[in-house]
Amino acid sequence: MGQDSGPPASQTGTDGRVPVDDRPIAAFDFDGTLTVRDSFTAFLRWRAGPFRYAVGMATLAPAALRYVIDRDRGRIKAAAAGAFLAGLPRRRLEALCGEFAAEQAQALFRPDALAAWREWGERGARRVIVTASPSVVVRPFADRLQADDLIGTEMAFDDQDRVTGGFATPNCRGPQKVARLEARFGRGVRLIAAYGDTAGDHAMLAIAETQGLRVFTQRPDPA
Asked: Rounded to whole angstroms, how far apart are CA atoms 126 and 81?
């Protein structure tokens, strides 16, 4: 998956042009807002299994120590991608992410967040997920939710289309969320609503009419 993908082919008119979509935008953070926990960490643990995950985390000790000093979330996230995913072909990664979403969606989504998501859809809003997690991991969940757009951190792939262990875009957090929204929808973009759960969402919430910080608290029913 490269940079942010454009609109689906079904939205393209017969003359090849994309119709203007002037629906109001409702932006949702993903991890901790729509879900109860971080999806990228959960995906790495799911793919590796308990033992390999523990070993992989041990190799990240230097990166974790550096994070204590520089607080660079993007750097430590890239280190985790390198430890667990480096060399994985893009198509295999996408397939694994699809399997993960199919197995874990019910255990991850907050019921009250889903209710708000549906309500904004019924009100005619353009529903956008804006997340610091790799978009390749979140994409299958976004498809399940019928999200209109997904903006996330983009993983880097080499010339053989394999995971490098780095990222092709800055970590989509804090002011980067607004920058990415403006890159997609234009400078001065206004949101009819935005929801998040950490300081990394403050900039996005600040440009929204309805601002929801940590308003979703429900947990999914045990399986």
From this structure: 31
Rounded CA separation 119/124 (Å): 9
Fold observed for domain 21-213: Rossmann fold (3.40.50)
The tokens of 79 are what? Answer: 């280190």
Task: Name the band, by pLDDT with cuts 50, 70 and 90, for residue 6.
Answer: very low
Domain ranges in the chain?
A: 21-213
CA distances from 209 to 25, 161, 206 (A): 10, 41, 8
Q: What are phi and psi of 67, to 5 degrees?
A: -65, -35
CA distance 91 to 127: 27
- Distance CA(93)–CA(74), nearest Å, equals 20
Residue 45 has pLDDT above 70, yes or no: yes
Q: pLDDT class for 66, splitting at 50, 70, 90?
A: confident
| Amino acid identity at 176 | Q
For the record, the structure tokens of 19 come out as: 């119709």
